[in-house]
Structures are given as structure tokens and as C-alpha cells.
Design a protein that fits this description.
Number of strands: 10
Number of helices: 0
Mean pLDDT: 95
Order of helices and strands: EEEEEEEEEE
């Protein structure tokens, strides 16, 4: 639900993507990859605070598990997508296409709104 990204600054090389995933099935699934037409590549990341209070960001090589009957939200300060090697920046009001790839559900086409 509601895939979105923020506008990028001029010359930016990265952007972030956010959305909610609702698993209405009876079995867990896993988001394993994301693409965005604005980027050369994309990674699924997690932000967390370590034991010393420092916020860290790390890629999730195994993706994100979506438990059966649950909703997982990718949002600022938490799970998110990093669009890297941007081909172009985006401005508020624009949209760009992407795909979400799941272990079981396969590929789902989405359109990110730049909010």
C-alpha cells in the first residue's frame, strides 16, 4: 500500500522508498528484491539503534519476512528501500515505476509517488 519516496536534492545519488506490505495469506512470505526505474540498483535496508545509541543502516541480504496475516511497514527510521546509482532525480508530484519481488507471491508491479 501507498509506495512513496521523497523528492531528491540536485545531484543526489540515492533515494529511499517506503510502503506497507499486507500478507493476507495463511503462510509467511518474504520480500527479497525491489527495483525502481530511477535507479541502477536497489537494496532493502534496516535502520536500527545500536547498544551505544548510534543509529545504523544495513542492507538485509535475506530481505524481510512478512508473517501470515500481518502487515509490515517500510517507513523512515525503520525498514526501507535504498535506490542507488540514480539515473535521475525526482520532484514532488512525480511518479516512477518499480517492482517488488516475493519468494512465494512472485513479482508485483508498483508505482511510487514522490510525496
Amino acid at each position: 500500500g501507498h509506495p512513496w519516496s521523497r523528492a531528491t536534492l540536485e545531484g543526489a545519488k540515492v533515494a529511499a522508498g517506503y510502503f506497507k506490505i499486507e500478507n493476507e495469506g495463511s503462510a509467511p512470505d518474504r520480500l527479497i528484491a525491489v527495483t525502481g526505474e530511477i535507479a541502477g540498483r536497489a537494496e532493502i535496508h534496516e535502520m536500527a539503534v545500536d547498544d551505544s545509541g548510534v543509529m545504523t543502516m544495513r542492507p538485509l541480504a535475506d530481505g524481510i519476512e512478512i508473517p501470515a496475516g500481518a502487515t509490515v511497514e517500510l517507513k523512515p527510521g525503520s525498514y526501507h528501500v535504498m535506490f542507488m546509482d540514480l539515473k535521475r532525480g525526482v520532484k514532488e508530484g512525480e511518479k516512477f515505476k518499480g517492482t517488488l519481488s516475493f519468494e512465494k507471491a512472485g513479482t508485483v508491479d508498483v508505482e511510487f509517488s514522490v510525496d
